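Q: Hi! New to this. If I give you a protein sequence and the SMILES for S-adenosylmethionine, can you show me the bound structure?
A: Yes, paste them in.
Q: Okay, here:
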Amino acid sequence: MTTSASSIAAWLRDNADLPRIDREVLLADVLERTRAYVFAHPERLLANDDLRRLDDAASQLRQGTPIAYVRGWREFFGHRFRVSPYVLVPRPETELLVELCVREARTGERVLDLGTGSGAIAISVGIARPDLAVTAIDISAHALDVARDNARTLGASITFAQGCWFEAVTTPHDIVVANPPYIADGDPALATLGAEPRLALTAGADGLDAIRVIVRQAPSFCQRLLMLEHGADQGAAVRELLAAAGMTGIRTETDLAGHDRITWGRLA
Ligand SMILES: C[S@@+](CC[C@H](N)C(=O)[O-])C[C@H]1O[C@@H](n2cnc3c(N)ncnc32)[C@H](O)[C@@H]1O
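A: Thanks. Here is the predicted structure of the protein with S-adenosylmethionine bound:
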């Protein structure tokens, strides 16, 4: 919808078909103010340039573009990550994987993040624990460009490499973390995720193909802990895979919604 709105209140009203929070966030971005400012100044007039940018952003939202792609960034673990349609938008539940890794890592250990996407996990771990040597891998060169850019902007020292899971890894690591694709091909949930790269989302008929490969290869490249994010209904299957690979101390952590989310185990 193209509007003739001239104030914050009028633009909010003219775009009432969009969620209120999205409208406020877009206004805050364009005006380079906070949402509190937007809320407190409904009478503020909008410049034509600002109106054009707002209307363009609103039409992207109506076409189903996630707000993180419209804004170009998403906050994760307290940091602002640039995102593009080449990378998954980092999810809040993945912060649990970062917390676990930061908590369990011993001083100076080598950490490997497989399928780094925007670099959200590797960079957050690297910033929280500068004593660790963090390497991040992705098969997508475009994703790695975004991750490298985020590492530079956020001042994190990360080693990046392109390859299929452990393919580009030449040295053993103490901890391997991954949020691999884990949605089953044909899952109806994919209908709402169409803007994100398919490569980041799906992994075979039961969604476990990527996890199977990582677990099978982990003993050759991982010396201590393997930590995997997975779907809410995949906890038991992932525990079985880790046990079959000879891992011990296997545990599943639940996310804030109480769903199975991270399963981790110890290598001998
Ligand atoms: C679910 S996304 C996770 C992105 C990021 N780690 C996060 O948590 O926001 C999975 C990532 O795995 C990458 N990927 C898919 N297949 C891969 C493979 N065979 N080898 C390496 N990375 C792969 C995708 O490009 C994508 O960036």
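A: The mean pLDDT is 96. Let me know if you'd like me to explain how to read the tokens.
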